[in-house]
Amino acid sequence: MDTLLPHTREAHRVLLDRLAVAEAAHEAEDPLDAYPPVDVFLTAAARHVAAVLAVLVPAARRKIDHGHELARAFVEQSRRFELALNQVKARLHGSAYAQRRSWASLWSDVRRELEHLWLLEERLAEELVAARVGSDPDWRTVMERVERHVPVRTHPWIPHQGVRAHLVRVYGTDPGRDLRR
Description:
Mean pLDDT: 84
Shape: elongated
Helix content: 55-70%
Order of helices and strands: HHHHHHHH
Number of helices: 8
C-alpha cells in the first residue's frame, strides 16, 4: 500500500493548522508572542517544500512522461511560495520594506501560494503513485527522512534543482554566482 497521498494530505492539513495559529498570533497584546507560532509555521513550510523539491520533483522527472513540465511548474510555484514566506519573515523582524503591507495582506498571499503549491504537490504525488513500480522506494518514508535534514529557512533565490542546487545546499554557496557577476 502506498502511503504518499495520505502523507501529503496530512502534511497539508498540518501546514494549514499552523498557518491559522500563525495568523492569529498577531492579535496578541505583546508582539513578541507572535514570533514562536510564525517561526514554527515558517520552519515547517520550508522543510516540507525542500523535501518535496529533493524527493518528489526528481522522481517525477524520471518516472512521469510529462514530469519535466510538472517539475518545472512545482519549482516555479515553490519560489513564489518562498517569496511570500520571506515577506512574512521580513515583516515579523521589522523590515522597513515589509512594514508597508498589512498582516492580512501578507497572510493572504501565503495562503494563496500554499494552495497553488498544494495542488501541484498533490498532482505530483498522484502521478508518482500511478507510475509506481515494485523497485520504487516508499516515497513517504523517503520524504520523512529528508524533511529531518533539509534547510529550515526558505531560499527563493538559490537554485532549486540540479547540481548547482545540491552544491548550494551542501556547501552553502552558489558556484555559478561569481561567474554571473
